[in-house]
Amino acid sequence: MAPPENPSPAAPSENSQPPPPAASAAAKGKGKKKDDDDLVSPARKSPASLRFDLVVSPRLTRVGAAVGGGSGAQGAAGAVRRAGAGRGSRRSEARPREHEVLARANLTDSALGLRFHPQNLAGEIAQEFQKRQDDDLPIDALMELVQQIISFHMKHNAEPEAVDLLMEVEDLDLLVEHVDATNYKRACLYLSSSSKYLPTPDDMLALDIAYTIYMKFGDLASALRIALQLDKGLAMEIDDEIAADDNDKEILQEIVNNTKLSEGYLTLARDIEVMEPKSPEDIYKVHLIEGRGASSSLDSARQNLAATFVNAFVNAGFGQDKLMTAPSDSSSSSSSGNWLFKNKEHGKASAAASLGMILLWDTDSGLAQLDKYLHSNDTHVVAGALLGIGIVTCGVKNDCDPALAILMEYIGKEDSNIRIGAILGLGIAYAGSQKEELKMHLSAVLGDSQSPLEVLVFSAIALGLVFVGSCNEEIAQSIIFALMERSEAELAEPIIRLLPVALGLLYLGKQENVEATAEVSKTFDEKIGKYCDVTLMSLAYAGTGNVLKVQKLLGICSQHLEKGETHQGPAVLGIALIAMAEELGAEMAVRSLERLLQYGEQNIRRAVPLALGILCISNPKVNVMDTLSRLSHDADADVSMAAIISLGLIGAGTNNARIAGMLRNLSSYYYKEAAHLFCVRIAQGLVHLGKGLLTLSPYHSDRFLLSPMALGGLVTVLHACLDMKSTILGKYHYILYIIVLAMQPRMLLTVDEDLKPLSVPVRVGQAVDVVGQAGRPKTITGFQTHSTPVLLAAGERAELATEKYIPLTPVLEGFVILKKNPEYHEE
């Protein structure tokens, strides 16, 4: 088809018309006589003409005045008018269409007003402010202008611009005066989101202003989220000011103690119909595996130990299973006592402790069922029961402190297995509680020169977990002295590397507070000094997204060292821990870790899968899944085992079918490798954690808050996995139970004001970032409507699909109390 011929530029187009004679005559005679239009009396003017004179003319006059003087105004008005007259010759009146002229006037207006637009002024004010600050000049006049611009921005849905300007002129407090009930939520959302990208102390200041604004408008639930992020040291004691009535006090104390967690979790399980206990065979799905490895009976004690963990993870919190709680008179031979003794020595400890995991959060029933094992003659069984008591009470407080009363008796026993069980049990039961009583007793164990190394290490870990993020100097000194007094032979033991982790837990997320301790760590023996220094830095900046520290750790990873250096492993984990704070940083870290895989030394490659595991924990991203799948067949055994465990971590509690398929294939691929097969089983247990109702993510409240206890538990397990052969594959496999600190139901359960479950319709969809958007944009996309209770996957958000109730919290996850909407009327 031939291209259409282009008309020559000179030739007029069909539709164009020559300018009418009247217009050209007027143009020639410019200034000689007044326009005829102006001589027409108002009475004879048409409505369109009158509107032109009343609406457009004054506007053009203002524009002209802005340019300079009245003559300019008349000129502008005349020009627009004449142009309109030329266009409108077909009509009876030589008048421009009103909307055309207004459009032209707007164009002129915007062209002239662009330089004086508040946004442009804001940029210039920021530069001027900096200049005046540098030259020590007064800024009062500038601040008056800032006040006006902020006022303009806040009235015109431009909260982000207002906040940015106030940050530039270092006067965020001004914002509090200018927010009102219509825009405070958007302003606070922008403040809290931008705080992730601000340097200290600006980040804390932004959050502080958000807190002040929320309190000003009585939005207490949102203020509480900010207070938790600021770590304001909230007291959990219910006093008369909070609740005067004793009955209310009791109910509130129950909520604070998390007593309802088990009940709510089981309500969810019944609703989704997954109460039926599952056996490890249901998870392995051996019938789906073709050929070799379908019936592997290799190393049966190791296989039974793996089945113990799988059983514990899958039935966690359900209170019943097919191995440990099955009634003894049942026809199956795998009743509790029998299964326990199918494990060897330290395997029995993990088997007894698994009962604690199965009865998770159900303190009364759990303590009753574990009590019988405390009277066993086998020290491993007693040790496991003590650890189980710690696991059962994890995350649930009790005013009677039963765990403390029972476990304290066993700390001083002679048998080191029993001592470790009691000590680790205390660490898990009271993680984050900062109990002074524990500090006294466990510090005594740390300071005792007669304590075996393993007892000493677990005492330090327990103290680190109980006082996580507290920056407690006394405990830090106890751990430092314990490290300094160790002999050469002891420093060569792999388990010793958990001591720096315990020290780092005290400063988890506390940034520069770690510096004094980090200086001391440089004086340690060179075998542990560098390891300690890197571990301290990576934990102190965990969850902060600090780019400079990530660069520093990448620098450490880029060095090529001789064999025997171990401190690059924690550096790789550190990159992931710091970058996990926000989505963008996490994606960048995944790419950096890919580079480390290509160019890094062997000890770096061994840590990369674990780092990927923590970056995407309980969030199976396809690209990370593929990388780990590739690494799970790596020639280096440590790399492949770490990749297998990490496949379990990224799929933890998701029942992800693709990962489950990968792990089934790996179980047949490694059917002759006992260690690899053990890792595959652990990963299978993690993927089906709580039959898909649990998550290991340390973030909650819409990924805004980070739980230090959950992160502390994950960090401890990951550091133990850096040397699997001597920890998890050795006799310290019960370290895996520390992961219970990060386990939470990924549910939304709505209750009424009497805390009774209430089923309401909710929309669940992918969360959309609406920071800085005007109006009320949709916060979720691709949603489905369900009735509560519902499951929330990673990156999902829920919102109520009814106006009958009002939620008492801005973020719908976990337990949400609803109150009736007084303005709702059923149609």
TrEMBL record:
Taxonomy, superkingdom: Eukaryota
Ranges for domain RPN1 N-terminal: 119-232, 236-288
Molecular-function GO terms, alphabetical: enzyme regulator activity
Region (Disordered) residue spans: 1-47, 66-98
UniProt GO cellular component terms: nucleus; proteasome regulatory particle, base subcomplex; proteasome storage granule
Biological process (GO), any one: regulation of protein catabolic process
UniProt xrefs under Pfam families: PC_rep, RPN1_C, RPN1_RPN2_N
InterPro entries associated with the record: 26S_Psome_Rpn1 (IPR016643), ARM-like (IPR011989), ARM-type_fold (IPR016024), Proteasome/cyclosome_rpt (IPR002015), RPN1_C (IPR041433), RPN1_N (IPR040892)
Chain intervals with Gly residues compositional bias: 66-75
Residues in 26S proteasome non-ATPase regulatory subunit RPN1 C-terminal domain copies: 771-824
Keywords of this entry: Proteasome, Repeat, Ubl conjugation
Biased composition (Pro residues): 1-10
Family: Belongs to the proteasome subunit S2 family.
Subunit structure of this chain's protein: Component of the 19S regulatory particle (RP/PA700) base subcomplex of the 26S proteasome. The 26S proteasome is composed of a core protease (CP), known as the 20S proteasome, capped at one or both ends by the 19S regulatory particle (RP/PA700). The RP/PA700 complex is composed of at least 17 different subunits in two subcomplexes, the base and the lid, which form the portions proximal and distal to the 20S proteolytic core, respectively.
Function: Acts as a regulatory subunit of the 26 proteasome which is involved in the ATP-dependent degradation of ubiquitinated proteins.
Protein name: 26S proteasome non-ATPase regulatory subunit 2 homolog
